[in-house]
Specification:
Length: about 300
Amino acid sequence: MPKIVLLWTDVVLYLMLAALAWYGWRIRVNANLRANWWKVLRDPAALCSGIVLVLFALVTMADSVHFRRALPPAPGAPAGTPTFYATTTESLLDVLMARQIAMRETGYSEPLAYLGLQKEPIERDGQPVRDFPRLKFGGAHLSEPESQWGGDVASRAAVGALGGLIFAAMATLATAAALRRSHGGMGGALRDLLGDRTDLPLRAALITVAVSSVLIGIVVALMGHYHVFGTDRTGNDVLYQAMKSIRTAFVIGTLATVATLPSRWCWASSPATSAAGSTRSSSTSTPRSARCPTCC
């Protein structure tokens, strides 16, 4: 069994997740908050942005479960020998992208390339020449890359896009099934979804899901055989680095938000602000619809 490792940044993200769960419960029991958030969800841009944010949050949480692998016991070790663990800490995201970690080249390469970006001395037909070397992993399955590369990339991308479209179609059918009672059956629900005649902008949401699914499907279909975003100076896969940076962005954004909250609270509770607020409220009243949905 692996050994679970808890990093300080993991604690911050778990506390943020707990705070979101508590706030979700508060929305559920508070009619005013619930009404305000329904107004937010009825905005197509806000709903679509929330879907994209959820996708990034899933990647962040997968990269926030850290552990150390248990090392195999030494040959001939007696029973009851203590288990030793690896010194490197991994995450679930590292496990999911183990192929990209292992696909390390020697230097720069372009996206989806099968050749390196810099010329190196290589031997060809028994003669030393200086040319672009073949990548060790990117396009390594191609026996004649000059003629096979274009068709292989196109076919794999098409399969990935098809898988994404199938997922989007399943999501659309599942949504229509959930709406069939209030929209006159499955056919009526599908027609109302396509005509954007639903309480929430579900058509925009499903379009966002479809586009995201197609893009994810294409990347997944290609990343096992190519470096989708190329490699960096040391040959590391840029796609893997981009996925790892999502958690960093969440941590920085969360800490920056938490750090600014005390100053905002102090400013809001200062005597000058309270006096100004009371004077303003006596002359004009702020409509409920104009207040912040997260705190009012």
